[in-house]
Structures are given as structure tokens and as C-alpha cells.
Records
---
Amino acid sequence: MVFFEWKDEYELGLPDLDLQHTMIVNMLNELHAAMESGQQIVTAEKTLEKMLLYVEEHFATEEQAMRDNGFPGLDAHILEHEIFRGKVHALHERHVQGADVASHELIAILMGWLKNHIAEVDQEFGAFVCQKSEEAKKAFFQ
């Protein structure tokens, strides 16, 4: 059984970003499955590594897309990314210092990011691009 399902309401309508966002759901499901099978320590470590890559690669992609489209909320969005990036790096630093990072802690962080950022804040950008596209179509066909 899948722990968390990707929903259409999370989609921005921007395929590259949507695909990257599904990585969060994949990490959630992997962590949950690992907890059920008793493999949570190894999986938590791997997930933490994936999260480090995600915050660098995905945020760079998303922020560039916002720049390319002239998104007016870019600065506020970057600030949210920086806060989340800081959380992920702090967790990683804790792990490097020898502390266990609990799977349930990672699940809570990922779930919060999915529900509060991807499902809400990122939607503003998706709506902006969609509106911009509609305006361009109208202008083209007039």
C-alpha cells in the first residue's frame, strides 16, 4: 500500500517542475515503507542525501523558471527555499555529528513541505504562468 499519493491538485502544469515535485512523494513513500520493514535508519540516511540534492537542484530549476517568466513573487519564494534549505542542511549536520535523524522527523518535514509549499505557495507560480500563457494566446489570436 502506498503511504502518500501524488494528487493532480499539486501539479503546476509545468512538467519539469511537477516531475521534480513528485520526488518528495517518492521520498515519503520510501521512508514509510522502510519504517514498516525495519530499515528506517539506512533509508533515512539515503533520504537525507536525496533531500540535499533536491534543495540544490530543484530550487535552482524552479527559481530560474521564475526568473525566466518574470514572476513577481520570486524574492519571497527564494526566502522560503532558503529556510527549507537551512533545515535540510541542519539535519545533515546533525547526522554528520553522529546523531540519528529519525525517519518520522524526515516524513514530517517532507509532508509539511509538500502540503504547505508545493500544494499552496508553488501554485501561485503555476497560476501566474498559466495566466501569462492565456494572455499570450489572446494577444496572438486578436
---
Amino acid sequence: MVVQLLVRKRRFRITRREQKRRRVFFLIAVLLLGCILLLRPFEVNWGTISLPGPLRESGLYTEVFKATLPGFRSSREEPEDSSHHVVNKTLLAMVDINPMDPRTFLSTQIPGMRSFRDLSPPPEFVNEEGSLPQVYPALLTSQETSFQGGDFHGGVFIYHAHTTESFVPTSGERFTTDLSQTVAFLGQELKLILEGDYGVPVLHDTTIHDIPRSQAYREARITAQARLDAAKEVRLVVDLHRDGVARRVSTAEINGEQVGKILLVVGSGHKDWQENMQNAKNLHEALERIAPGISRGISEKNLVYNQDLHPGALLVEVGGHENSLEEARRTLPYLARALAEIIYQMP
């Protein structure tokens, strides 16, 4: 009996040693494979990428992105979207990460490392024929920023960290460099309403920052800092987005019309974030007075979103990718009125 126990124990110890050796070999193989992939480009079918079952079911990626992306919801909170759908659509489209290509993970972590995809320069607002889109021809005249120097006082600066975010029912895709289909169009119309109806001066910058998407906030910071340095007495800074959640979450009925709901995102990853939060609370309260149900509230994230650049910095999500551009446009009069209210109440 004693001999048998010793033999079994010996076998068990050998088995554990062998398992450890196999793990080491496996890690070395993974590192070698990663080096090969980094040094040798390969083709990926972007439309058919799928993670192995265990990774899909673990919720690892959905929890990571829930903690870092404005308005992102996990598959458990959004039952209409499977984990497969969330990972493929969000991972590839929203943050420019390909789970099959380690280089894309590095590009999100190493400053200056760019995407490996060939990207053509962004076009102007005008279409291929050189004319304006026929849907709303009066709003977009060029890709100028409405920013001419230091003669701007006391208004709103609007820009877009994710300039190419579009509305699928209208554009047919989640992202496009045709800015007449994106949040940049909303920014231009919001500018016209604020200036025309409320006398609030507006700077609107349409620089594309999200190609590649992993660099968006860093590139947007450069733009925002330059504009704020040149302007005087900016009251509010609006980083205008659209969300990536299900339509039932991003849509409300206001005055008998379907409109995109508004989510406010505050980054608490800097020391003066409470000032940003107070302005977000003021805007939320004004929205709910004007159109009850139009606001989805305030989402606080332990990030920065460049809100450390200005105490009046706001990240505003209008609607979602499943809303049409028209539904998002219907939100703008309510948003403009709320912004004007809090600006005129500022000391």
C-alpha cells in the first residue's frame, strides 16, 4: 500500500512537471507566432472574423470596452446583440482592433504606431460630381472650420473625436468619410441653430480624427488644444458623437416624432473632472425640462476624453448607429436650446 502511494505521488509530480514544461513551450510558440505576424503581413477577411467559443462566451472584450467606450453596453445588457456580434462589430469597426492580428493591439498602445490598412485621404463635404448632397443642400458649404482666429468670444466650440460616425439607415454603414452622412453634419446644423435662433457664436471643426480609430482621442486633442489656444472665452466645448447601442436604447418619441436620445459622458480620469460633471448635470436637467425623456443621463468613466482641456468640455452622444440621420437631426433643436440656456446662465 505504501509503495503504491509513493508510486502514484511520483507519477503525479512527473505529470505536473510535464504540464509546466508544455506551458512554457506553448508560450514560446505564441511569442514566435506573434513575431512572425508582426514581421510578415497577411490577409484577413474582415467580414468573417470570429473568436473561438471560449473567448466569445467569457465576455472579456465586452467588459473591457464597456469600461472604456462611451455608451458601450455588454451583450448581457443588450440581448438583441450576441457576444459574437458585439465583438466583431465593435472590436473591428469602433476601435480598429483585429483579434487575429496582434499588430493592431500594439497600435493602440504604442504612440505613433499607425494602422496597417491603406487609407485614402478624407474627401471634402462635396460629392464626386463636385456638388452638395441633395438632402440638405443649404447646410454644408465646404469643409471649412468656421474658425478664423482670435475674434471669437463667449460661445461654443464643437468638434468630433469620431468624425466618421454615421447612421446606418441613412448611410448604409456605421462609418464613412462622406461627412454629409456623419456626426459632422449634425455639428454643422447645431451651429446654425445656436447662431440663428439664440445668438450664440459657434466654432465648428470638421477635422477627421478617427482614421485609424485607435488614435482618435490623441489626434482630436491636438485639434482641440489649437482651437482653444486661438479662441477667447469659450464657454462650452462639445465633442459630438453618436452612440453604438441598440435602437430601443437610443430612441425616444418627443412630440409625436422619433428622435435620437442624448447620452452625456464625463471622464473622471483627471483632477478637475467635477467641473465637467457639473456642466453635464446642468445640461441634463435643461434637456429634461425642455423634452422629458430625451436624455439618457450621464455616464461617468474613469478616462479623460480630453475634457481636462476645458472645464466646460462635454461629450455628447446624439442617437445611435441604428437611428437615421433625420432622427438624429430632430434632436438638435432640443440640444441647442438646452446649451443656450446653460450658456446664458453662466456667470
